[in-house]
Amino acid sequence: MSSFGTLFKVTTYGESHCRSVGCIVDGVPPGLALTEDDIQPQLTRRRPGQSKLSTPRNEKDRVFIQSGTENGKTLGTPIGMLVANEDHRPHDYSETDLYPRPSHADFTYIQKYGSKSNSGGGRASARETIGRVAAGAIAEKFLQKVSNVEIVAFVSQVGSIKMNRSAQDPEFLKLLDTITREEVDATGPIRCPDSSVAELMVKEVEKHRDSKDSIGGVVTCVIRNVPTGLGEPVFDKLEAQLAHAMLSIPATKGFEIGSGFEGVEIPGSQHNDPFYFDEETSRLRTKTNNSGGIQGGITNGENIYFSVAFKSVATISKEQATSTYDGKKGVLAARGRHDPNVTPRAIPIVEAMSALVLADSLLIQKSREYAYNIVKS
Amino acid sequence: MSSFGTLFKVTTYGESHCRSVGCIVDGVPPGLALTEDDIQPQLTRRRPGQSKLSTPRNEKDRVFIQSGTENGKTLGTPIGMLVANEDHRPHDYSETDLYPRPSHADFTYIQKYGSKSNSGGGRASARETIGRVAAGAIAEKFLQKVSNVEIVAFVSQVGSIKMNRSAQDPEFLKLLDTITREEVDATGPIRCPDSSVAELMVKEVEKHRDSKDSIGGVVTCVIRNVPTGLGEPVFDKLEAQLAHAMLSIPATKGFEIGSGFEGVEIPGSQHNDPFYFDEETSRLRTKTNNSGGIQGGITNGENIYFSVAFKSVATISKEQATSTYDGKKGVLAARGRHDPNVTPRAIPIVEAMSALVLADSLLIQKSREYAYNIVKS
Amino acid sequence: MSSFGTLFKVTTYGESHCRSVGCIVDGVPPGLALTEDDIQPQLTRRRPGQSKLSTPRNEKDRVFIQSGTENGKTLGTPIGMLVANEDHRPHDYSETDLYPRPSHADFTYIQKYGSKSNSGGGRASARETIGRVAAGAIAEKFLQKVSNVEIVAFVSQVGSIKMNRSAQDPEFLKLLDTITREEVDATGPIRCPDSSVAELMVKEVEKHRDSKDSIGGVVTCVIRNVPTGLGEPVFDKLEAQLAHAMLSIPATKGFEIGSGFEGVEIPGSQHNDPFYFDEETSRLRTKTNNSGGIQGGITNGENIYFSVAFKSVATISKEQATSTYDGKKGVLAARGRHDPNVTPRAIPIVEAMSALVLADSLLIQKSREYAYNIVKS
Amino acid sequence: MSSFGTLFKVTTYGESHCRSVGCIVDGVPPGLALTEDDIQPQLTRRRPGQSKLSTPRNEKDRVFIQSGTENGKTLGTPIGMLVANEDHRPHDYSETDLYPRPSHADFTYIQKYGSKSNSGGGRASARETIGRVAAGAIAEKFLQKVSNVEIVAFVSQVGSIKMNRSAQDPEFLKLLDTITREEVDATGPIRCPDSSVAELMVKEVEKHRDSKDSIGGVVTCVIRNVPTGLGEPVFDKLEAQLAHAMLSIPATKGFEIGSGFEGVEIPGSQHNDPFYFDEETSRLRTKTNNSGGIQGGITNGENIYFSVAFKSVATISKEQATSTYDGKKGVLAARGRHDPNVTPRAIPIVEAMSALVLADSLLIQKSREYAYNIVKS
Known about the structure:
4 copies of one chain form a homotetramer. Chain A is of the alpha+beta class. Chain A has a single domain (3-376), classed as Chorismate synthase AroC (Chorismate synthase, AroC fold). Helices cover 32% and strands 21% of the residues of chain A. Chains A and C meet through strand 2, strand 3, strand 5 and strand 7 of A and strand 2, strand 3, strand 5 and strand 7 of C. Strand 11 of chain C pairs antiparallel with strand 11 (252-257) of chain D, so a sheet runs across the interface.
């Protein structure tokens, strides 16, 4: 439903045209320094209207903490957060009163809820992700305190324009070791760290925008400095939780971790990540990282990295031959301005969902570590 | 942890060398005809030693229902099921007492549980999946009663040998409409429905087996006759639940639904699935199915289909330069016989996890439908 | 943590001195007529400052729906609700900076959260219950639609002043059949339906208020027109869920259902509720109702009724010899005005928690009924 | 449904006449010494046929661990456990084919599951509690390691025969400080530590047994050496979890903690537990313990104690005028031998459920303590 997590848990509410969107974050450790300033930056990165590549609706998205902090520190109690919906005029997409938008949630929401709402696919609005990003920012701040965990997502593909993201490529693995959010944002609106590819991607988006169309892309994310031992065997393997988290983001169609789909072609003898003893850190590490930092569902301390496929945006202004709700043939061209490509704005959402998965897994594992240390003694 | 689902819930137990493996399935509707004969076939399909392509250990895997049925019908109470571990001699892989197997769970289990068990990565054993398959068989029987739901998985890639699985290919979509388990099994041990490709796949597996190596593959799965309205918006979108379910299967590295990663390259105007009114069924359907049967996280009644990447098996007899637990360099060659490719045996597991996701989503949605029918009246 | 329920689920946030308190209610059926006017009455009944018996702080407690409704109907999406904390000046109980209040949560919150907050036992504030009452009002409206479910709580004891609440007393059982909220409120501030007892109760409260002390009481609650079959065998018996719900209300010390503690003295032959065929409703009913409407954890269609013990309020102005946080002996007399008895204000909270338990159980059972009807056919 | 707990979780299966009853315990810390010998004693205490006061059916109830241990130590993986149902002949209570037993679950199970099973109220069988007791024994062993937690339950009332259990009585509080299971069992079959009262209780049970009737009772339980800080504010207060756990035991009608129902009559100035600094343990303690060891839902380190009301057993051999399933008047006298009083056998069940609640709360709190220690530093 609208909750995610076990010990570190977020619950969200809100559609596009209601009073506000927001969330409750339960299980935040007490004593953490936290104000709106820790949360706003990622919300701002998520905001539309940031560049000529995204929709010009100017949402301000200012977050207000309602509860759970005192004098700039968390109390350990649930943190309520709220972002007002400034633009809640009814809406100007009147064709969508007649037509279910193809590949959008309009049709399926009626199947599910038995009636049509003004705002079409209610919670399918991108504004729903505000609560996730706000919650993720808190999770991330906690993870930084734990072990300086760093989470950096970037656009690795737009349409057929790709940067290299092969687990077999040492250059790519090196990039994962060092890439920062600042570097990702510095390459311009598309948030691809390879600036020459970034330029081509921008052109690709512009091309589809100019033809009133849209195009998809891939977001790749790396998580560094992850403690070992996170993730539960069997049903809640860490990669399963990450896949769940990523495929819960609107418009996603695929997830791959480590070597991913490419890896199936590589024989075990080359795909296996051999161990070596690392003198610097005094622990076993792996020479390669086809595993993507997770083995048997549990983190091994290497970088976690994965990619997420985002389809081409469903709402386009180009004419589409389709059917009305009533089954009559017709042509739909959505009014209004729409993002021709969502991947740059998806970056903070991917980062937020990653942080939520990790914070929850960490709390669960740390209680186990407590227990076996007690039991052993 | 070891439970999956909310209203239709399975909890599993068991490692490779303990007394038995099994599960408890809670939330099975009362009155369903059910005996061991409904469950055994999928367990038998999962079993090793079925062909020259899989490991020759001869596990018999006979399931015994412990509770929850009476006179061949379910009572509505939890169904306990148990499969004895016949082969529970200590084990003969003594090198693995010294070496953590690369890309296996040996190392991470120690990180998680603080000590090394004889059976290495305990629950990472493939025998853990027996409980899932048994539970899935019950879910499937229920789904058949609901709307004749059909779930068919098959191998679509081994190493670099692929059959076509593009959402853009009408032939592939047609195959998804009709393919049966019988057809899948009929093509021989590899379970690829395209018999010419199947032959090449078998050779690919044999090549790696003969060089004491292993190779990965892709399993594709279609689910037909799914009721509309299943899946929860936001965090529990149906594709998110399926991704979670699939990435929880050992050795998986990726998941894609509908057009998947390929779809990101297709502009929205071509990627969107336009609606039409279907006279035969008297409802809106879509002309294409890039969505893979799910829009906004909710089923639209079209075929659900997705693919899952399985990496090359980690345990190989080929020598690998790696490190001992103690950090000393050395060479590991795993003794014993190991599956050179797991995809054919993964088929019933993928089917089982699909059934579990659907049965749970269905029960949740049906309570909502009850409620809004009441509220409306 | 801060969530309650499975399919009908409320999550709350808020302490006494933060910006607002509120909740998210997930799983509300779509299509239900709902505005703030449906929620405000119970919040107003919960409010302090309603009579000379309760604290004069004048909180207005106006609720604002944030999401999940459109044109006065629910969408099926989560309903966010918010009540501003108007009075959030720091607080004037400065002694409690030095002293943990005896039998309050001040001390245990430090044990739990590792540091002391200004507002002492944060979530132990009575304002936390606002979110529950708001959510309960929605649950109740749904239950009324389902089967005209009626939930009425009243004060049955204050200190040693009791009205009869014995399961053996036909008069009491008759009262349970008919008592309404209007009748409960009509007897004056104490909300005991027996007006002669109510008068004595008021005097009892005044006596303790005048001596700067406090006194406890018992709230009894009846739920009528409950569908049969609700509640889950084993761990989630309906009475177990009700006990959980009631003991989660601040200041509660006990729960009993049906014949309760008194019932242990009655032999089975008299305690058992014999069946008879009721011509009017054409179904089996019971002649007596020692069971309190639940047998084997499952509703049988008779009235559910139970009682909840509330201890004497911990915060009193009377001097108490106790210890400072630092372990120094001293005398604490809490400043400010405090409720000398909480039972009248607890009435809507008990009703709300009852409604939440029932709405959740109902949704779960209705999916089962759907399933067995399908399976049978 | 059939699971209890979050991080330390038990799932049970089994009715009276199926192959076996059992459970899966998930979340048991790795490294704990554990064999069947740790579990059998409490199962044996739960067993019928232990004395002339209980039913003579001779169930042996030998438990077999299926998984999750190796060389006598837990692995951290789920522990499957199984007890065979030796006596699974159909049953000899043929009247109950015609009559729903009054105050039993026969009628409500049909309402819930839509059909009648041979074994009547399936999971309402006392054999269901075997899984709980087995799981509780593991939880208890863990808690002993943590802080030498001691859990001792005893019978404090049978019919109208009571021993003193008032929170106001220093003698009773002293008893709670020291009472052991050995002492409880030493007083004979009734398990009341006050031997003079015990004798009267035995007579009370015999009286009702001889008249083919049954009688209820109260079980009181104390938990010593509990760490502070356990229990979650708001919905999962520790007393709410205990109430849930206790009311989930068959035949329970009430729960009270600390001063309980009696406490409502005591003014706050006497009911509050004042603090003092305890030199011996160097921490704040309370002089009295009306709170029952929990304040604001969180443990304060004092003894937890509570009482649970068990109604008179529903199945009696005495004739009862009631109705058949078909609505015809008739007289039911249950064949077979039945426990005239269940309280002595309920002792290990109450202890087990207590241990399960505590182990789960402890694991949750320890992850929080880890987190705030990290965050502070």
